Queue: 3 jobs
Job 1
Amino acid sequence: MNPRQHCLDCLQRTPPSTFDAALWISVEHDATVDPQTTQELIAQLQRRISASLPLLPAAELAQPLLRQMATIGFQQDDVAQPKPQVALLHRVVERRRGQPLGLAMVALELARRMEIPLEGVNFPGHFLLRVPGADHTLDPCDGRRLYPKDCRELLLRQFGPDMPLKSEHMRTATPQAMLQRLSRNLRHLHQINDDLLSSLKDATRVMELGPGNASDYLARASLYQNLECPQAERFDLEHALLLSDDPVQRIRLTQRLVQLPSGQAIH
C-alpha cells in the first residue's frame, strides 16, 4: 500500500488509529520518515510523563498530562511565516513545537496509552481537548481550563465580534474530522510556502477522508488554476457551485466558469 492507503486503512481499525494515520500523512510528504521512530519517541515520552503524574484517578489526569507536556517543552509554534513542520506530526514530536491540533494529537495518543479519558473538540481556529462529560475544555498548548466565556474570547480574538459561540463549535472531533482538519492545515501551509504539488496532495486527501465543502473545492480549484489544469479546475468550481449557499459567491463562480478555456489539460 502507498502512504495514502495506509492512512485511510488506519481509520478502518477498531478503534481507529488517528495518530498512526497522521504519521502516514508525514510519510506521504517525506518518504524518509519512519513511523516506528516516532512511535518510539512517544513511548519514551509516555514513560517520562507517567512517572511525573500525581496519584489521582485517571479521569483527573488529563490536565496534569498537558501540564507535564508543557513542562518538558511542548508549546505552540506561532512564528509569523509558519512552515509545514508545525503540522506534520513526526516533526511536532521531534521539535515539541506545533499547531494546537498537532499538540492535541500527541496528547491524545499519550492519554490513550495511559488510559486517561480525553477527546478532541473541533473548535474553530484553535483545536481543543476535553475530558468526556466535563463542563470545560482544555487548551492543548498549556492545559489551561477554558469555560464558555473563555471560548467566546478565543472566537473574538480570531474571528472578530460577528462570530458567536455555537453548540456545534463544541462537538467532539471524530478521527476523520481531525485528519481532515490536519490536511486542510497542511494544504494551506504548503501553499503559502510555494509547494503547490504538496498542497494538492493535501487538498485531495481532504476529499478522500470525507465530504468536502465549497471552500475545499475552491481551494483545490485555485491550486489547479496555478498549475494550469483548467479541466480539473472546472470540475472543482462546478462542485463548489453546487455546494455554495452564498448568492454572491455563486455569481462569481458562474462568471469564473464562463471564463475558463476549453480543451483538455494534462495533469
Job 2
Amino acid sequence: MRIVIAEDDLLLREGVAMLLRAEGVDVRAAVANADDFLAAVDEHAPDLAIVDVRMPPTHTDEGIVAAVEARRRQPGLAVLVLSAYVEQAFATELFSDGGAGLGYLLKERVGRVEEFLEALHRVVDGGTAIDPEVVAQLLTRSRPDSRLERLSAREREVLALMAEGLGNGAIAERLVVTDGAVHKHIRSIFAKLDLAPADRADRRVTAVLHYLRDTAGRGPVRR
C-alpha cells in the first residue's frame, strides 16, 4: 500500500508517518502544503492520501480543495481527511463526488491506533470511514424539517454506524441484534430518505450525505 501524507503540523506528520511505517506501510511522501501534496500524488500515484483539512498559506480549505483535485487527477484514489474538529461543510464537499474510498476523521483518532488503522484499511478497500464524533454531532444538529426526522431512534443509530463505515454484520454485533434486523432497518432508512433501489449511487453513502448536506453551511462544529 503506497501512501502520501499532507499535514502542516510537523510532529503529527512525522508521527503518522512513523506509525504507518512501523506497520509495514509504504509511506512515499510526507509534505506540509497542498502544492507539494499534489506534486507527490502525481509522482508516486499512491493508493491512499492522508490529508489535513487546513494547510498553508491561508489555513482554511486548502486540504479539502487539494483532496478533491487529487481524486480528479487520479480517479479512485482513496482519501482519508484529518481535521481538528467537525467541519460539516468541508465534509460535504469531500463526499460530493460519491463517497467510495473516502474517510473523515478527527485528529485525536490517530492516537487510537487500532481504530485509525482499521479506518485506513477500510477506505483503501473502497469503503467509507466517518468519525463517530462527526456522525453524532451532525445527526443531532439536523433541522426539524429534515428527512432524517422520519427515522426512528434505532434507525438513526443504524445510520450513524453506517456512516462510520461498518457493514451489516458489524452493526448487528454493535447493537446486539440479528443481521436480518439490521437489513430491515437499512431498507426502512432508504425508503424514508427516498433512495430508490435503482439509484446508481451507493445508497449507504447517499444516506450519509443527506445529513451532511442538511447541516452544511452553518459553520464548524467545535468541540
Job 3
Amino acid sequence: MSTVRQIYELLRWEVKLEWRDKYALGSVFLYVVATVVIVYLALGDAIAGQTFNALYWVVLFFGATVAAGRSFLREGGRRHLYYYTLADPLALLFSKLFYNVLVIWLISLLTFGLLSLFASAVVVTHPLPFLLAVVFGGFGLATILTFISALAARAGGNGTLMAILSFPLIVPLLKLMVDAGTYGIGEGINDPFQAVYLTLAVDLLAVAVAVVLFPFVWRD
C-alpha cells in the first residue's frame, strides 16, 4: 500500500475513533467555550483590540495543546506494535498531523466566533494577514505538538517532558502569530507579511525536522 493511501486510511481511522469517543474532542471545545465565557464575565465590554488579540492566541494555544498533546498517548502497548508492523512511520505521522491541523483550525474558528460575539466592538481591519497567521500558525502548532507528543509517548507518556520540550519551540511561533494578529486588528507592526513569511518558514523547518527524526523515534 502506498504512503498516500496509508495516510488516508489512518486519517479515516483517526476520525472514526474520535467520533466514537466524543468525550476527548468535546472536552477541548468545552474548554474553549468556558474560557471565552469566563473572560467575558470578568472583563465585560473592556475587551479592546490588543486584549482581543492576546486572548485569542492564548485560548487557541492551550486548546491546541490539549487537542494535539494526546495524539500518541493511546498508541502504546499492542496498538503500537500493530502500527509498527503495518504502517510506514511517515504515514502515521502525517495522518496524526493532518487530523490535528483540522482540529486546531476548528478551535480557531470557534474561538474567533465566540470572541467576536462577546467583543463586537473589535473589528479585524486587515483580515488577510490575520487569516494567514491562523492557517500557518495552526499548522505549525500541530506539527510541533504532534512530534513532541510522539517523543513524550515513547518516553512513557510523560506530560512534563512534553511541556518542557514544546515551550521553547512554541514561543517564537506564538510571537509571530501575535504580531500578525496585532496588525490584523489595525495596530502594531508596519509589515505584517514578514511575520507571516517567518511563520511559514518555521512550519517548513518543523515539518523537515519531524520527517527526519520521527522514523527513528517510532522504530525505537
